[in-house]
Amino acid sequence: MHSQVFVERKVVARVSGAGAAALSAHIGWAALEKSVALYGRDHAFTKLHVDLSGGVDPDDAFSSVPYEKGFNLLYHLEGLVGGPAAFEPFLKAHVRRYAYGTVAFGEWKAWLLRYFADSPDRSVPAKLAKVARRHFRTAEHRISQRRKALRMLHGYGYIRTTWIAHRRSVAPPPRQDWDAWVNTPGMPPTATPAPFDRSLLDAAYALADAWAAAAARVASGEAVTAASAYGPLAARAPEVANAWTNGQRVKFLDRLLELQKGEGGAASVPAAMLRAMGSAYGFDRTRNCELRFRFITASLVARSSTTPHYRDHMSRCSCSAIADLRCCAAVLLLLLVHHFFVLQAGDEGVHAAAVAMLTSQGRMKYVRPLYRTLAASGARGAALARRTFRAHRNGYHSICSKMVARDLGADDDAGGD
User: Fold this and answer.
1) Fold (topology level) of 199-308+335-408
2) pLDDT per residue over 132-165, tens digit each?
3) What is the value of pTM for the model shown?
4) Considering only CA atoms, which of 300, 271, 285, 266 is closest in space to residue 371?
5) For 4-119+170-182, which CATH class?
6) CB 3.0–4.6 Å: which of 29, 97, 276, 332 could bond 230 by disulfide?
Protein backbone atom coordinates (compact mmCIF):
# COMPACT_ATOMS: atom_id res chain seq x y z
CA MET A 1 0.00 0.00 0.00
CA HIS A 2 1.31 3.44 -0.90
CA SER A 3 1.02 6.35 1.56
CA GLN A 4 2.77 8.62 -0.96
CA VAL A 5 -0.38 9.85 -2.70
CA PHE A 6 -2.19 10.38 0.60
CA VAL A 7 0.61 12.58 1.93
CA GLU A 8 1.00 14.31 -1.44
CA ARG A 9 -2.64 15.44 -1.33
CA LYS A 10 -2.13 16.69 2.21
CA VAL A 11 0.66 18.91 0.84
CA VAL A 12 -1.53 20.06 -2.06
CA ALA A 13 -4.27 21.04 0.39
CA ARG A 14 -1.81 23.12 2.42
CA VAL A 15 -0.29 24.83 -0.62
CA SER A 16 -3.18 25.21 -3.08
CA GLY A 17 -6.27 24.74 -0.94
CA ALA A 18 -8.70 21.95 -0.15
CA GLY A 19 -10.41 22.34 -3.52
CA ALA A 20 -7.23 21.45 -5.42
CA ALA A 21 -6.63 18.41 -3.21
CA ALA A 22 -10.24 17.31 -3.73
CA LEU A 23 -9.82 17.61 -7.47
CA SER A 24 -6.67 15.51 -7.31
CA ALA A 25 -8.62 12.85 -5.41
CA HIS A 26 -11.31 12.83 -8.12
CA ILE A 27 -8.62 12.45 -10.80
CA GLY A 28 -7.15 9.56 -8.84
CA TRP A 29 -10.52 7.85 -8.51
CA ALA A 30 -10.97 8.03 -12.29
CA ALA A 31 -7.50 6.50 -12.77
CA LEU A 32 -8.42 3.70 -10.37
CA GLU A 33 -11.62 2.98 -12.30
CA LYS A 34 -9.62 2.74 -15.54
CA SER A 35 -7.10 0.32 -14.02
CA VAL A 36 -9.84 -1.89 -12.59
CA ALA A 37 -11.69 -1.87 -15.92
CA LEU A 38 -8.48 -2.77 -17.78
CA TYR A 39 -7.72 -5.78 -15.58
CA GLY A 40 -11.32 -6.78 -14.88
CA ARG A 41 -13.18 -6.25 -11.61
CA ASP A 42 -12.43 -9.77 -10.35
CA HIS A 43 -8.74 -9.80 -11.31
CA ALA A 44 -6.28 -10.46 -8.50
CA PHE A 45 -4.18 -7.45 -9.55
CA THR A 46 -6.99 -5.13 -8.45
CA LYS A 47 -6.51 -6.16 -4.83
CA LEU A 48 -4.66 -3.78 -2.56
CA HIS A 49 -2.48 -6.65 -1.36
CA VAL A 50 -1.34 -8.64 -4.39
CA ASP A 51 0.12 -12.11 -3.95
CA LEU A 52 3.21 -12.21 -6.15
CA SER A 53 4.20 -15.76 -5.25
CA GLY A 54 4.04 -18.58 -7.75
CA GLY A 55 6.05 -16.88 -10.47
CA VAL A 56 3.80 -13.84 -10.95
CA ASP A 57 5.62 -11.06 -12.78
CA PRO A 58 5.47 -7.88 -10.63
CA ASP A 59 5.58 -5.77 -13.78
CA ASP A 60 2.21 -7.18 -14.82
CA ALA A 61 0.66 -5.89 -11.59
CA PHE A 62 1.91 -2.31 -11.96
CA SER A 63 -1.01 0.14 -12.09
CA SER A 64 -2.70 2.94 -10.17
CA VAL A 65 -4.44 0.40 -7.88
CA PRO A 66 -1.98 0.43 -4.93
CA TYR A 67 -1.69 4.21 -5.09
CA GLU A 68 -5.37 5.09 -5.28
CA LYS A 69 -6.88 2.18 -3.39
CA GLY A 70 -4.26 2.83 -0.71
CA PHE A 71 -5.18 6.51 -0.63
CA ASN A 72 -8.87 5.71 -0.16
CA LEU A 73 -8.09 3.26 2.66
CA LEU A 74 -5.97 5.84 4.49
CA TYR A 75 -8.63 8.50 4.01
CA HIS A 76 -11.19 6.06 5.40
CA LEU A 77 -8.99 5.27 8.42
CA GLU A 78 -8.42 8.97 9.07
CA GLY A 79 -12.16 9.42 9.41
CA LEU A 80 -12.46 6.44 11.75
CA VAL A 81 -9.86 7.69 14.24
CA GLY A 82 -11.13 11.25 14.48
CA GLY A 83 -9.94 13.17 11.44
CA PRO A 84 -6.69 14.89 10.42
CA ALA A 85 -5.91 16.17 13.93
CA ALA A 86 -5.64 12.60 15.17
CA PHE A 87 -4.23 10.93 12.06
CA GLU A 88 -1.52 13.35 10.95
CA PRO A 89 0.61 12.79 14.09
CA PHE A 90 0.46 9.10 13.22
CA LEU A 91 1.76 9.88 9.71
CA LYS A 92 4.74 11.71 11.20
CA ALA A 93 5.39 8.82 13.56
CA HIS A 94 5.14 6.44 10.60
CA VAL A 95 7.86 8.37 8.75
CA ARG A 96 10.12 8.41 11.80
CA ARG A 97 9.61 4.71 12.46
CA TYR A 98 10.11 3.40 8.94
CA ALA A 99 12.48 5.97 7.43
CA TYR A 100 15.02 4.40 5.07
CA GLY A 101 13.22 1.07 5.18
CA THR A 102 10.14 -0.86 4.16
CA VAL A 103 7.28 -2.44 6.09
CA ALA A 104 4.91 -5.26 5.27
CA PHE A 105 1.20 -4.57 5.53
CA GLY A 106 0.64 -6.93 8.48
CA GLU A 107 3.31 -5.24 10.59
CA TRP A 108 2.03 -1.78 9.61
CA LYS A 109 -1.56 -2.66 10.52
CA ALA A 110 -0.51 -4.05 13.93
CA TRP A 111 1.47 -0.90 14.67
CA LEU A 112 -1.41 1.34 13.56
CA LEU A 113 -3.78 -0.35 16.00
CA ARG A 114 -1.19 -0.29 18.77
CA TYR A 115 -0.42 3.39 18.18
CA PHE A 116 -4.00 4.50 18.66
CA ALA A 117 -4.62 2.11 21.53
CA ASP A 118 -1.64 3.64 23.36
CA SER A 119 -3.01 7.18 23.02
CA PRO A 120 -5.27 8.23 25.94
CA ASP A 121 -7.30 10.47 23.67
CA ARG A 122 -6.87 10.44 19.92
CA SER A 123 -8.34 13.93 19.50
CA VAL A 124 -5.70 15.84 21.48
CA PRO A 125 -2.33 17.12 20.25
CA ALA A 126 0.61 14.77 20.35
CA LYS A 127 2.28 16.78 23.13
CA LEU A 128 -0.60 16.14 25.51
CA ALA A 129 -0.86 12.52 24.45
CA LYS A 130 2.78 12.11 25.39
CA VAL A 131 2.12 13.54 28.86
CA ALA A 132 -0.83 11.27 29.29
CA ARG A 133 1.06 8.15 28.22
CA ARG A 134 3.72 8.93 30.82
CA HIS A 135 1.20 9.15 33.67
CA PHE A 136 -1.33 6.54 32.56
CA ARG A 137 1.25 3.97 31.56
CA THR A 138 -0.16 1.06 33.58
CA ALA A 139 -3.26 0.24 35.55
CA GLU A 140 -1.17 0.13 38.75
CA HIS A 141 -0.73 3.90 38.90
CA ARG A 142 -2.33 5.35 41.98
CA ILE A 143 -5.33 7.61 41.79
CA SER A 144 -3.21 10.45 43.22
CA GLN A 145 -0.78 10.13 40.30
CA ARG A 146 -3.64 10.26 37.80
CA ARG A 147 -5.03 13.35 39.52
CA LYS A 148 -1.61 14.97 39.29
CA ALA A 149 -1.54 14.24 35.57
CA LEU A 150 -5.00 15.75 35.12
CA ARG A 151 -3.84 18.90 36.93
CA MET A 152 -0.90 19.12 34.51
CA LEU A 153 -3.22 18.77 31.56
CA HIS A 154 -5.50 21.42 33.02
CA GLY A 155 -2.52 23.72 32.94
CA TYR A 156 -2.40 23.27 29.19
CA GLY A 157 -6.02 24.36 28.91
CA TYR A 158 -7.42 21.04 27.69
CA ILE A 159 -9.30 19.93 30.80
CA ARG A 160 -12.52 19.90 28.75
CA THR A 161 -11.24 16.77 27.01
CA THR A 162 -12.49 13.55 28.57
CA TRP A 163 -9.50 11.52 29.64
CA ILE A 164 -9.46 7.78 30.09
CA ALA A 165 -7.96 6.40 33.25
CA HIS A 166 -5.49 4.02 31.66
CA ARG A 167 -4.67 2.66 28.24
CA ARG A 168 -6.45 -0.67 28.65
CA SER A 169 -9.75 1.17 28.80
CA VAL A 170 -9.06 3.00 25.52
CA ALA A 171 -10.72 1.43 22.50
CA PRO A 172 -8.69 1.01 19.30
CA PRO A 173 -9.94 2.52 16.05
CA PRO A 174 -13.49 1.31 15.28
CA ARG A 175 -13.64 -2.17 13.83
CA GLN A 176 -13.78 -2.46 10.08
CA ASP A 177 -13.63 -5.12 7.41
CA TRP A 178 -9.93 -5.17 6.60
CA ASP A 179 -10.39 -8.06 4.20
CA ALA A 180 -12.82 -6.07 2.05
CA TRP A 181 -10.26 -3.28 1.69
CA VAL A 182 -7.08 -5.30 1.33
CA ASN A 183 -7.84 -8.73 -0.13
CA THR A 184 -10.97 -8.19 -2.21
CA PRO A 185 -10.58 -7.35 -5.91
CA GLY A 186 -12.33 -4.47 -7.65
CA MET A 187 -13.14 -0.99 -6.45
CA PRO A 188 -12.93 -0.05 -2.74
CA PRO A 189 -15.83 -1.02 -0.45
CA THR A 190 -17.06 2.57 -0.47
CA ALA A 191 -18.04 2.02 -4.16
CA THR A 192 -18.17 5.79 -4.70
CA PRO A 193 -15.53 8.53 -4.36
CA ALA A 194 -14.99 10.01 -0.93
CA PRO A 195 -17.22 13.06 -0.35
CA PHE A 196 -14.71 15.67 -1.50
CA ASP A 197 -15.72 19.11 -2.66
CA ARG A 198 -16.90 19.02 -6.30
CA SER A 199 -17.07 22.72 -7.17
CA LEU A 200 -13.92 22.76 -9.33
CA LEU A 201 -14.81 19.41 -10.88
CA ASP A 202 -18.37 20.49 -11.71
CA ALA A 203 -17.13 23.64 -13.45
CA ALA A 204 -14.85 21.56 -15.69
CA TYR A 205 -17.61 19.05 -16.46
CA ALA A 206 -20.10 21.80 -17.27
CA LEU A 207 -17.83 23.36 -19.89
CA ALA A 208 -17.06 19.96 -21.46
CA ASP A 209 -20.78 19.18 -21.64
CA ALA A 210 -21.38 22.58 -23.26
CA TRP A 211 -18.86 21.75 -26.01
CA ALA A 212 -20.53 18.39 -26.61
CA ALA A 213 -23.94 20.06 -26.77
CA ALA A 214 -22.61 22.58 -29.30
CA ALA A 215 -21.26 19.72 -31.42
CA ALA A 216 -24.68 18.06 -31.33
CA ARG A 217 -26.30 21.29 -32.58
CA VAL A 218 -23.82 21.45 -35.44
CA ALA A 219 -24.44 17.79 -36.38
CA SER A 220 -28.22 18.22 -36.32
CA GLY A 221 -28.11 21.41 -38.40
CA GLU A 222 -29.60 23.45 -35.58
CA ALA A 223 -26.52 25.68 -35.53
CA VAL A 224 -26.04 27.67 -38.73
CA THR A 225 -22.25 27.32 -38.63
CA ALA A 226 -19.67 25.65 -36.43
CA ALA A 227 -18.25 29.08 -35.61
CA SER A 228 -21.58 30.25 -34.19
CA ALA A 229 -21.80 27.13 -32.03
CA TYR A 230 -18.22 26.99 -30.80
CA GLY A 231 -17.38 30.70 -30.74
CA PRO A 232 -18.86 31.57 -27.31
CA LEU A 233 -17.13 28.57 -25.76
CA ALA A 234 -13.81 29.34 -27.44
CA ALA A 235 -14.07 32.86 -26.00
CA ARG A 236 -13.67 31.37 -22.52
CA ALA A 237 -10.04 30.54 -23.30
CA PRO A 238 -8.63 33.22 -20.92
CA GLU A 239 -10.67 31.74 -18.06
CA VAL A 240 -9.47 28.21 -18.80
CA ALA A 241 -5.85 29.34 -19.18
CA ASN A 242 -5.62 31.71 -16.23
CA ALA A 243 -8.38 31.03 -13.69
CA TRP A 244 -8.53 27.24 -13.83
CA THR A 245 -6.12 24.89 -12.11
CA ASN A 246 -4.32 22.32 -14.20
CA GLY A 247 -6.43 19.68 -12.47
CA GLN A 248 -9.56 21.30 -13.85
CA ARG A 249 -8.13 21.22 -17.36
CA VAL A 250 -7.30 17.55 -16.88
CA LYS A 251 -10.85 16.74 -15.76
CA PHE A 252 -12.28 18.81 -18.62
CA LEU A 253 -10.49 16.51 -21.08
CA ASP A 254 -11.34 13.45 -19.01
CA ARG A 255 -15.00 14.37 -19.32
CA LEU A 256 -14.72 14.52 -23.11
CA LEU A 257 -13.14 11.05 -23.06
CA GLU A 258 -16.02 9.81 -20.91
CA LEU A 259 -18.52 11.21 -23.40
CA GLN A 260 -16.72 9.40 -26.22
CA LYS A 261 -17.26 6.13 -24.35
CA GLY A 262 -20.89 6.94 -23.50
CA GLU A 263 -24.16 6.41 -25.29
CA GLY A 264 -23.36 8.90 -28.04
CA GLY A 265 -20.01 7.25 -28.75
CA ALA A 266 -17.03 8.97 -30.30
CA ALA A 267 -19.36 10.97 -32.56
CA SER A 268 -20.46 12.98 -29.52
CA VAL A 269 -16.99 14.57 -29.46
CA PRO A 270 -16.16 14.95 -33.17
CA ALA A 271 -12.77 15.77 -34.63
CA ALA A 272 -13.88 19.17 -35.91
CA MET A 273 -14.97 20.19 -32.44
CA LEU A 274 -11.68 19.01 -30.93
CA ARG A 275 -9.72 21.04 -33.49
CA ALA A 276 -11.65 24.20 -32.62
CA MET A 277 -11.37 23.59 -28.90
CA GLY A 278 -7.70 22.55 -29.03
CA SER A 279 -6.78 25.65 -31.00
CA ALA A 280 -8.72 27.99 -28.70
CA TYR A 281 -7.47 26.50 -25.41
CA GLY A 282 -3.96 25.66 -26.58
CA PHE A 283 -4.28 21.90 -26.07
CA ASP A 284 -2.94 21.22 -29.57
CA ARG A 285 0.39 22.84 -28.69
CA THR A 286 0.73 22.30 -24.94
CA ARG A 287 3.85 20.67 -23.52
CA ASN A 288 2.05 19.57 -20.37
CA CYS A 289 2.06 15.77 -20.61
CA GLU A 290 -1.20 15.27 -18.71
CA LEU A 291 -3.10 17.57 -21.09
CA ARG A 292 -1.20 16.52 -24.20
CA PHE A 293 -1.84 12.83 -23.57
CA ARG A 294 -5.57 13.29 -23.06
CA PHE A 295 -6.06 15.62 -26.02
CA ILE A 296 -4.22 13.29 -28.41
CA THR A 297 -6.16 10.31 -27.07
CA ALA A 298 -9.50 12.06 -27.63
CA SER A 299 -8.40 13.11 -31.12
CA LEU A 300 -7.42 9.56 -32.05
CA VAL A 301 -10.75 8.21 -30.84
CA ALA A 302 -12.62 10.92 -32.76
CA ARG A 303 -10.66 10.23 -35.97
CA SER A 304 -11.35 6.50 -35.75
CA SER A 305 -15.10 7.19 -35.81
CA THR A 306 -14.97 9.68 -38.70
CA THR A 307 -15.75 7.58 -41.79
CA PRO A 308 -17.64 8.37 -44.96
CA HIS A 309 -21.28 7.43 -44.79
CA TYR A 310 -21.51 5.40 -48.00
CA ARG A 311 -23.81 2.80 -46.49
CA ASP A 312 -25.99 5.42 -44.83
CA HIS A 313 -26.45 7.13 -48.17
CA MET A 314 -27.21 3.92 -50.06
CA SER A 315 -29.72 2.76 -47.44
CA ARG A 316 -31.64 6.01 -47.85
CA CYS A 317 -31.24 6.10 -51.64
CA SER A 318 -34.44 5.63 -53.71
CA CYS A 319 -33.02 6.64 -57.10
CA SER A 320 -34.75 5.26 -60.16
CA ALA A 321 -34.21 7.74 -62.95
CA ILE A 322 -30.86 8.22 -64.67
CA ALA A 323 -30.69 11.79 -63.43
CA ASP A 324 -31.21 10.61 -59.85
CA LEU A 325 -28.51 7.98 -60.29
CA ARG A 326 -26.14 10.66 -61.50
CA CYS A 327 -26.99 12.63 -58.37
CA CYS A 328 -26.15 9.63 -56.21
CA ALA A 329 -22.87 9.13 -58.06
CA ALA A 330 -21.95 12.77 -57.48
CA VAL A 331 -22.67 12.47 -53.76
CA LEU A 332 -20.60 9.30 -53.47
CA LEU A 333 -17.75 10.95 -55.36
CA LEU A 334 -17.77 13.84 -52.90
CA LEU A 335 -17.68 11.38 -50.02
CA LEU A 336 -14.72 9.60 -51.56
CA VAL A 337 -12.87 12.88 -52.01
CA HIS A 338 -13.69 13.75 -48.40
CA HIS A 339 -12.28 10.43 -47.25
CA PHE A 340 -9.03 10.41 -49.19
CA PHE A 341 -8.12 14.07 -48.84
CA VAL A 342 -9.78 15.52 -45.74
CA LEU A 343 -9.90 12.53 -43.40
CA GLN A 344 -6.47 11.17 -44.23
CA ALA A 345 -4.98 14.65 -43.92
CA GLY A 346 -6.55 14.86 -40.47
CA ASP A 347 -5.16 11.41 -39.61
CA GLU A 348 -1.67 12.57 -40.54
CA GLY A 349 -1.84 15.45 -38.08
CA VAL A 350 -3.19 13.36 -35.19
CA HIS A 351 -0.82 10.49 -35.90
CA ALA A 352 2.14 12.86 -36.04
CA ALA A 353 1.16 14.31 -32.66
CA ALA A 354 0.87 10.83 -31.17
CA VAL A 355 4.26 9.73 -32.51
CA ALA A 356 5.86 12.96 -31.28
CA MET A 357 4.66 12.28 -27.75
CA LEU A 358 5.57 8.59 -27.86
CA THR A 359 9.12 9.42 -28.89
CA SER A 360 9.75 12.48 -26.72
CA GLN A 361 9.14 10.97 -23.26
CA GLY A 362 8.95 7.45 -21.90
CA ARG A 363 6.66 7.37 -18.87
CA MET A 364 4.64 4.19 -19.01
CA LYS A 365 1.50 5.91 -17.72
CA TYR A 366 1.39 7.82 -21.02
CA VAL A 367 3.25 5.55 -23.45
CA ARG A 368 1.36 2.32 -22.86
CA PRO A 369 -2.24 3.60 -23.18
CA LEU A 370 -1.30 5.91 -26.07
CA TYR A 371 0.15 2.99 -28.04
CA ARG A 372 -3.04 1.03 -27.36
CA THR A 373 -5.24 3.88 -28.55
CA LEU A 374 -3.14 4.48 -31.65
CA ALA A 375 -3.26 0.78 -32.53
CA ALA A 376 -7.05 0.75 -32.10
CA SER A 377 -7.61 3.81 -34.31
CA GLY A 378 -7.64 1.84 -37.56
CA ALA A 379 -5.35 -0.15 -39.84
CA ARG A 380 -3.06 2.80 -40.51
CA GLY A 381 -2.85 3.60 -36.82
CA ALA A 382 -2.07 -0.03 -35.92
CA ALA A 383 0.71 -0.20 -38.50
CA LEU A 384 2.13 3.11 -37.32
CA ALA A 385 2.05 1.99 -33.67
CA ARG A 386 4.04 -1.16 -34.42
CA ARG A 387 6.49 0.67 -36.68
CA THR A 388 7.10 3.40 -34.12
CA PHE A 389 7.54 0.90 -31.30
CA ARG A 390 10.03 -1.21 -33.25
CA ALA A 391 12.12 1.89 -33.94
CA HIS A 392 12.10 3.19 -30.36
CA ARG A 393 11.54 0.24 -28.03
CA ASN A 394 15.17 0.18 -26.88
CA GLY A 395 14.84 3.77 -25.69
CA TYR A 396 12.08 2.91 -23.20
CA HIS A 397 12.55 1.48 -19.73
CA SER A 398 12.70 -2.31 -19.93
CA ILE A 399 9.41 -2.70 -18.05
CA CYS A 400 7.64 -0.20 -20.30
CA SER A 401 9.06 -1.87 -23.42
CA LYS A 402 7.96 -5.30 -22.27
CA MET A 403 4.38 -4.21 -21.47
CA VAL A 404 3.91 -2.27 -24.72
CA ALA A 405 5.26 -5.22 -26.71
CA ARG A 406 2.67 -7.41 -25.05
CA ASP A 407 -0.12 -4.93 -25.80
CA LEU A 408 0.85 -4.69 -29.47
CA GLY A 409 1.54 -8.38 -29.89
CA ALA A 410 5.13 -7.53 -30.69
CA ASP A 411 6.87 -9.78 -28.16
CA ASP A 412 8.68 -11.67 -30.90
CA ASP A 413 9.75 -8.57 -32.84
CA ALA A 414 13.41 -7.78 -33.02
CA GLY A 415 14.81 -4.85 -31.13
CA GLY A 416 15.11 -1.32 -32.50
CA ASP A 417 15.88 -0.95 -36.17
Assistant:
1) 1.25.40
2) 455 444 444 455 555 555 555 555 444 334 334 3
3) 0.72
4) 300
5) mainly alpha
6) 276
